[in-house]
Amino acid sequence: MSKDACALPTGYVANSTDCNDTRSDVHPGATEFCDTVDNDCDGTVDEGVGLTFYRDADGDTYGNLR
For 41, which DSSP code? Predict the structure, then answer.
């Protein structure tokens, strides 16, 4: 919701770049976490924070690249 005024009203800010105004930890510049949420409002979810896992077909706790 926007509001036109000559001075900044209480509870308002001068930009509209927040992608989720129901969570204070989600905003432009926030740290991205591996949580299926776009924490930093850049349009991409969990970029740069995922881990790589390898299949362990024989159950020896060591993966294989193939």
Answer: S
